[in-house]
Amino acid sequence: MPNSSGYRAVVSARNLTKRFGDFTAVDGISFEIPAGESFGLLGPNGAGKSTIMRMLGGVSRRTSGELEVMGLDPERQGPEVRAHLGVVPQQDNLDEELRVRDNLIIYGRYFGLPMSYLRPKSAELLEFAQLGDKAGARIGELSGGMKRRLTIARSLINDPGILLLDEPTTGLDPQARHVLWDRLFRLKERGTTLVLTTHYMDEAEQLCDRLIVVDRGRIMAGGSPAELIRAHSSREVLELRFGAGRNASAAGALAGLGERIEVLPDRILVYADDGEAVLGQAVARGLEPATSLVRRSSLEDVFLRLTGRSLID
């Protein structure tokens, strides 16, 4: 298996487009991913992220544009591309009839890997996924977080250079998400290229070296999380709630405070370098918010600035 570091970019997309009839799911996007990077596609459900992932994996044909994965065309050289990929789908598709260890071994046989390799490799991956004591368990005995870690372990059975993760932590509780993040950090430290989709801003900030913000099939912005926040938001955000039906009227009294103001159905966001100072100015004007919160800017604020809507619709 060739090493992904042998290519300048392990993934290269140029004017990549995918249409379904009159609907354009991916609209002429271009990006490159160097070996060893953790690259994210951030956007709401329906933004085109999963469609991009399916084209990378060679299971969906592009309408137009160019796409290379490890120097290969996924459409013309699909089996060769998939031999170097690990794929973690949105929904776990583990075989309920097989026990935990056998899910890895049988999957590995699809790649033509010998049992002499699969036995020790499956044991190694189960330890990596913190499932060593569950090797003989049935899938139905596992928690949601355990199933997700097993799906990731299974995706690594062929020692892939690139791991595609489509919404890897959707549906998991906070503790399970952090355990999964730790496993992904460890893979990145080993040099595995990670490509993940997410609509969780904290996940993108935690896991991604670089990302593109996608909305309606188009790239709105790209860069590291810190770069995007610096370019498109203030250092801090003051969140104010005045109660049902009163946010819009209160926004007028906040005019001139901070760099900009966003009025959402449930709260007002005031963007500023010093949120506490702005809160003091608001109180001095006689405003009495029901609740107030000063926080640092996030990718959610970047997306709101770029699109006028929240990441999670």
From TrEMBL:
GO terms for biological process: response to antibiotic. Pfam families: ABC_tran. It is found in: Cell membrane. It is a peripheral membrane protein. It comes from the Bacteria. Belongs to the ABC transporter superfamily. This is ABC transporter. It comes from Zafaria cholistanensis.
